[in-house]
Write a structure and sequence with these properties.
Number of domains of chain B: 2
CATH architecture of the largest domain in chain B: Orthogonal Bundle
CATH class of the largest domain in chain B: Mainly Alpha
Oligomer: heterodimer
CATH superfamily of the largest domain in chain A: P-loop containing nucleotide triphosphate hydrolases
Radius of gyration of chain B: 22 Å
Strand order of the largest sheet of chain A: 6-7-8-3-9-10
Structural class of chain B: mainly alpha
Largest sheet of chain A: 6 strands, mixed
Strand order of the largest sheet of chain B: 1-2
Order of helices and strands of chain A: EEEHEEHEHHHEHEHEEHHH
CATH topology of the largest domain in chain B: ABC transporter involved in vitamin B12 uptake, BtuC
CATH class of the largest domain in chain A: Alpha Beta
Number of helices of chain B: 12
Structural class of chain A: alpha/beta
Shape of chain B: globular
CATH topology of the largest domain in chain A: Rossmann fold
Number of domains of chain A: 2
Radius of gyration of chain A: 19 Å
Shape of chain A: globular
Number of strands of chain B: 2
Helix content of chain B: over 70%
Distance between the termini of chain A: 36 Å
Number of helices of chain A: 10
Order of helices and strands of chain B: HHHHEHHHHHEHHH
């Protein structure tokens, strides 16, 4: 489904701030793959997502989605096929607009001049109720009144209301309290498996990285250093994973948040 | 008594006509979150185009010509900021400056056009109302119709998918991009529509006072902004329709207060200073209110230090 071939990106080339964020990275995801991504600080996880979404154009290499080359498409065109969630729950929805208006924008049904119909509202209500957080009764409330967890769940629904070809989750539960984070993860699992959406999820929680999805990718220094799925992955423990990182990246994992969450 | 009534009516007429510009800012400033500094020039552009077309004998066409001219001006402002990397404030100022020359060119090189004998929508309405002897209210009727139509249109427009996308662009551009909508497109459409309103407003003002001079739009942005903020204080929350009506009320209240101030011998040239002060107060008061606890703590600490020094 997603096919990345040899992409590279260097920021501020030719200056003292030159930073090779991604170097010759290749990645292939099969349709329905749910891969978790872990790695140290500055490993290039978010940069990889930015490259896929078109926040910037890569210096070289090809990005294909569903067999089509999207390397040169602008961001809003790629967004038709890619759903994305950020760590910041405030980033994915418009606070001054109501829940149903946000959903209507995300659904994008009808022409430019069409109004929201009662059929649309019924559909939104039905989908909101499946989140089981009571948003279906607050559809005309502005989104700015929701809590971080509610907003992230809403954003998840908005990103998947038209099942995208690819879903990118960039530590989307990191800013939430543990109980809410678990709930949002559960909703994520349900939506992804139900629609069989090809998904990449960055997480700092090693246990989640092994429990969720069918594949785990480890990044360091703009490269993929470890990629595991199937039987081998089933037998992995968090300690094994740390060990593998040390062997493959040639250094210890230095993501402070990962280390903190392992100690707990 | 009758003088007061006439003054009140004039204030109402002016308020209604200028409320079209305020509605334009409601779209660009409140919804799209773009401060469109080309408003002054665009207002004059609408007035000039409307006057020239009306003088050439097309009173109805003049309205649409003025709106189309405003739309073009808005399109250029949008083009500069979305496709050419010019900061949105700067884009407005540049267009505003350029429009000065354009407006004089449209008026055939002169800075003043007279429409004393020209047939306009207002004279048309006057002759229409002759039968029912309501000729004195022709300006009021025309402006009332225009404002009603624009409010209805704007409310319907902002609730369409395109309108929602425009509101979201001002609210959270990131989210618009991830909803696969191009924010450059929504900004362009928003500015075109809002400047069409501004052009219409200028056209109606010029035709109602039967003349247009190059300075007709000067300071319009601040006056309209003051009205917008007053409107927000009156009816700031609720549905779009309610807020749009609040904006119109804001414009009328502004004109009424101004007229009353004139009655109390405030010189007419104070209009712009007063509107500046209203804008300053309306924007800074909420900010200062938020800063107040910090300022208070600072002052308390200072006072405490002083008394301690005294005691020592």
């Amino acid at each position: 489904m997603l096919n990345i071939v040899n992409i590279s990106k260097t920021f501020h080339p030719g200056t003292v701030n030159e930073k090779k964020a991604i170097s010759n990275l290749s990645l292939h995801l099969k349709p329905g793959d749910f891969a978790t991504v872990i790695g140290s600080n500055g490993a290039g996880k978010s940069t990889l997502f930015n490259a896929i979404c078109g926040d910037f154009l890569t210096d070289s290499g090809v990005i294909e989605l569903g067999g089509k080359d999207i390397s040169l498409q602008p961001q809003h065109v790629r967004a038709r096929q890619i759903g994305r969630l950020y760590q910041d729950p405030m980033r994915g929805s418009a606070p001054g607009m109501t829940i149903e208006e946000n959903l209507a924008l995300a659904a994008g049904t009808g022409g430019w001049l069409s109004h929201m119909t009662s059929k649309d509202r019924k559909k939104f209500r039905e989908q909101l109720s499946r989140l089981e957080i009571g948003l279906e009764d607050r559809m005309t409330n502005p989104v700015g009144l929701l809590s971080g967890g509610q907003r992230q769940a809403l954003t998840l629904l908005m990103a998947t209301i038209n099942p995208p070809k690819l879903l990118l989750l960039d530590e989307h539960t990191a800013a939430l309290d543990p109980a809410t984070a678990q709930k949002v993860l559960k909703i994520t699992n349900e939506i992804v498996s139900e629609n069989r959406i090809t998904t990449l999820m960055v997480t700092h929680n090693m246990q989640n990285a092994l429990d969720m999805g069918n594949r785990t990718i480890m990044m360091d220094d703009g490269r993929i250093v470890y990629d595991v799925e199937g039987k081998e992955r089933e037998n992995l423990s968090v300690e094994n994973l740390m060990e593998r990182f040390k062997i493959n990246a040639g250094k210890k994992l230095d993501n402070d948040r990962i280390l903190l969450s392992v100690e707990n | 008594m009758s003088i007061a009534l006439t003054l009140g009516q004039t204030a109402l007429e002016l308020g209604l006509i200028c409320s079209l510009t305020v509605l334009a800012l409601f779209l660009s400033y409140s919804m799209l979150n773009v401060c469109d500094l080309s408003t002054d020039g665009c207002f004059t552009l609408g007035a000039a185009v409307g006057a020239v077309v009306a003088i050439s004998g097309h009173p109805y066409l003049s309205i649409f010509a003025a709106m189309a001219a405003g739309m073009c001006s808005g399109f250029i402002t949008a083009l500069l900021q979305t496709r050419m990397g010019i900061d949105s404030l700067l884009a407005g100022i540049i267009v505003n400056t350029g429009l000065y020359s354009v407006n004089i060119a449209i008026m055939g090189g002169s800075s003043l056009l007279n429409m004393n004998k020209t047939e306009t929508v207002f004279t048309k309405m006057k002759s229409l109302l002759k039968g029912v002897s309501l000729t004195d209210y022709s300006i009021l009727f025309v402006s009332l119709i225009a404002v009603t139509l624009i409010v209805v249109f704007l409310t319907a427009f902002l609730n369409t998918r395109l309108g929602k996308a425009i509101r979201a662009t001002g609210n959270n551009p990131d989210m618009v991009k991830s909803s696969s909508i191009d924010p450059a497109f929504t900004t362009t459409v928003g500015l075109c529509v809002s400047n069409a309103f501004t052009g219409l407003s200028g056209c109606l003002l010029a035709q109602s006072q039967k003349s247009v001079d190059i300075n007709i739009g000067t300071g319009m942005l601040t006056v309209a902004l003051a009205s917008l903020l007053i409107g927000g204080a009156v009816l700031g929350k609720g549905s779009i329709l309610l807020r749009a009506v609040g904006v119109v009320l804001g414009a009328i209240i502004f004109r009424l207060v101004y007229t009353i101030a004139l009655r109390f011998h405030m010189p007419a040239f104070m209009l712009k200073l007063v509107s500046s002060i209203i804008v300053i107060l309306a924007i800074s008061i909420p900010y200062l209110k938020k800063q107040w606890p910090t300022i208070k703590r600072y002052m308390d600490a200072k006072r405490l230090k002083k008394t301690e020094e005294k005691d020592a």
